[in-house]
Amino acid sequence: MTKFNDLKLHTKVLKAIDEAGYTEPTPIQAGAIPPALEGRDVLGIAQTGTGKTASFTLPMITALNRGRARARMPRSLVLAPTRELAAQVAENFDTYAKYTKLTKALLIGGVSFKEQDALIDRGVDVLIATPGRLLDHFERGKLILSDVKIMVVDEADRMLDMGFIPDIEKIFQLTPFTRQTLFFSATMAPEIERITNTFLSNPARIEVARQATTSETITQAVYELPATRRDAQAKAKREFLRQLIEQEGEAVTNGIIFCNRKVDVDIVAKSLKKHGYNAEAIHGDLDQSHRTRTLDGFRDGNIRFLVASDVAARGLDIPNVSHVFNFDVPSHSEDYVHRIGRTGRAGRTGTAMMIATTKDDKLLAAIESLIKTEIPRGETGSAAPKVAPSETETEEKPKASKSRSRSRRSSRSKSEEETAPEAEPAEASEDAATQAIPDKPQQDEKPAAAEAGAKKPARSRGGRGRGRGNQDKGPQVMGLGDHLPDFIAQSFEQRRAQ
After folding, report:
1. pTM above 0.70, yes or no
2. Strand pairing class (204-207; 42-45)
């Protein structure tokens, strides 16, 4: 069996590895480190949680141990899709390079440009950055990339999801053609393969697991809730999430709860805290210091539940996560693999539970197609949330009457009619009388309509100068507006004749 001592790493690196408690490399490390030490380009494909970060940090430290960086000209470059993943790479570098004199700088958003400029001006051997912040420094003239000897792209498929591929291509073009490139991804989408074909030269391809597979140490289950009204669905899911946590009991030492939307992250976290659970939210809209404190608290065990968007799904090395709860079925099937990969890491066992509804059928089918297996269905009978009828049944709104002459009493609600049944006969007769009035009287019925007009006015059509019998009104009576009812004008005419 291969050991780290067999990989020709620098003795100072081996000493740091030994102090960290590692003796045997993971398959991706055993496959990627030898060609990386030889100076070859490497294309590593492995599921999350397999130790990809050490696969490039260890050979980088060994290769860069000789030499010194010049001001604003880093000797190596590591690109990560999120601030958290970049910070984690920096932590790994500190762990494995503590017996060397190599320097590093971390360029991420949410941190002052002034502090980062000061580090770059002193010269750094390893520059760890997110693509956007790196280009910001370059465009400000604070960074020169012509001396980069090793370039690493970590979690490339996540870069694709976040829209960083144009930035990655631009950064590739800013670095020397002779650089060594280490390219790591969990999946190989067509766009990712195009980039590797363009910018990597005869890479050593290391694929230690079938693309988009889930770890065998993770127990998976999906719980399909019955359909409810949309505004009641979220509440039902929150209730069911709490029931799942209680159902697992003490087995849930800690857990990450994933939501698709940032607004849902906040709502779920507040709901859990309201019901007495130790939970905090983390997503891209929070400032960096808040996100760092939250992650540190979760790692230290001070926070039991981390409610997160997919910003926390990739590459975060939190080894002792017992459970992952998918509050939402992920929109992209690849995200399911990365979400549940937060548990069951480094050979440990883990549990992944997902809450689904009827509208998630297509997303669920896409996930099962990707991972080439059917996710077991969990029982929802005893644990299914009991939603009140008022939350699941849509109340029918009373239809507005088109007749403007209908009695007001006919528009009362159904509940009022049941409490006063004696009013129904009068109401019915009044409606019948209303409907009995002809919509347009014939020419020979005008005198009768005029006599009846004193008792009940006829409906007006509302058009300018288009009342009934307008041609027989006689002289117009001023002061009553343009919509003068016929019977008024005819009544005045008859009295004048008398």
Report:
1. no
2. parallel
* Structure-token pair, residue 422: 């004696």
Taking the C-alpha atoms of residue 171 and residue 63, their distance in angstroms, rounded to an integer, is 22
Whole-number Å distance between alpha carbons of 43 and 29: 12
Query: Nearest Cα to 52, choosing from 72, 38, 79, 32?
Result: 32
Residue 473 to residue 353: CA distance in whole angstroms: 80
Local structure of residue 326 (DSSP, 8 states): E
Q: Are strands 104-107 and 279-282 parallel, antiparallel or unpaired?
A: unpaired
Q: Is residue 39 within 8 Å of residue 180, measured between CB atoms?
A: yes
Per DSSP, the residues of 356-423 read E-GGGHHHHHHHHHHHTSPPPBPP-TTTS----HHHHSPPPPPPPPS-TTS-GGGGS-HHHHHH-GGG
Token digits of residue 62:
């060994």
Residue pair 213/371 in contact by the 8 Å Cβ criterion: yes
CB atoms within 10 A of CB 218: 19
How far does CA 61 lie from the centroid of its chain?
A: 36
Residue 336, helix vs strand vs coil: helix
The encoded tokens of residue 145 equal 């990339």
pLDDT of residue 318: 77
Rounded Cα distance between 40 and 49, Å, is 24
Residue (of 74, 78, 73, 100) closest to 88 by Cα position: 78
Low-confidence ranges of the chain (pLDDT < 70): 1, 48-49, 209-212, 312-317, 346, 381-498
Distances (CA, A) of 61 to 26, 122, 250, 297, 358: 18, 19, 42, 29, 51
pLDDT in tens, 38-80: 999 999 998 766 788 999 999 999 999 888 888 999 999 999 9
* Residue ranges of domains in the chain, CATH in brackets: 4-207 (3.40.50.300), 218-392 (3.40.50.300), 446-498 (no CATH)
pLDDT on residue 226: 87
- Residues sharing a CB contact under 8 Å with residue 342, sequence separation 6 or more, in sequence order: 48, 49, 256, 312, 313, 316, 318, 321, 324
Q: Looking at residue 384, what is its pLDDT?
A: 45
Of the candidates 24, 27, 22, the one whose C-alpha atom is nearest the C-alpha of residue 44 is 27
